[in-house]
Amino acid sequence: MKSFFVAAAALCSFASAAPASPFALSPPPAGTQLYSLQAKSYDSVSGVNNQWVALKTGATAYTLAAAQSAAAKFFVDQYKPTSTYAFHNADDTRQIALQGPDGVLLYLVDITNPSSTNIPSGQLMEWATFTMDSNTLGVKDGSTLTNRTFVAVKGSDGGYSLALYDGASTTTQNITPITLSIVKTT
């Protein structure tokens, strides 16, 4: 029973590790640099290499698309206390968050006005924890896991969603390790 409370406390601290909406969420001012994200993979079989991160109309989970014209566009805000960034969807006030029922796979999702009060029950969620080192998307959230990586998760329809894999746990999902390159766009 004691271990349950320790585990629950650890999950609660992880779920609320992101800042409580430190940004005034609004569309970017004219002239703001926009970015797209492109998947890079050494796995030539999966077909995810050079695919673009996209958000289908009405969807909340980011997926991969072959056409650059389908790529989502983002602008960033830096959260200075942690030197991390929020990636805002450029067409309004939404941003990328990482969400999942446990820390094994945290899916890239689109969320409006994230705060600790709108985390779905039974879910872990974090936002504004991204890094942009060497034009590559990373995560800096205090985790001590060293083998975490972004992955493309193959769905039953043959398409791919995106997640941050903890690199240590077993998963039954069909995953392909990827790097998400940050590409300047207009």
Can you offer a commentary on this structure?
The chain has 186 residues and is mainly β. The protein has one domain (2-185): Trefoil (Acidic Fibroblast Growth Factor, subunit A) (Trefoil). It has one helix and 13 strands, in the order αβββββββββββββ. The strands form four sheets. It has a seven-stranded antiparallel β-sheet. Strands 2-3 form a two-stranded antiparallel ribbon. Residues 1-23 have low confidence and may be disordered.
- Strands of the largest sheet, in order across it? 1-13-11-12-7-6-8
What number is the mean pLDDT?
A: 86
| CATH level 1 class label | Mainly Beta
Catalogue the unreliable spans: 1-23
Taking the sheet with the most strands, its summary is: 7 strands, antiparallel
CATH architecture, by name, is: Trefoil
Instruction: Give the CATH topology.
Output: Trefoil (Acidic Fibroblast Growth Factor, subunit A)
Q: Can you count the beta strands?
A: 13
Gyration radius from CA atoms, angstroms: 16 Å
How much beta, percentage-wise? 35-45%
The percent range for helix content is under 10%
**Tertiary shape:** globular
Oligomer: single chain
Structural class: mainly beta
SSE sequence, one letter per element: HEEEEEEEEEEEEE
Quickly count the domains: 1
Keywords:
two-stranded antiparallel sheet; disordered N terminus; Trefoil (Acidic Fibroblast Growth Factor, subunit A); mainly beta
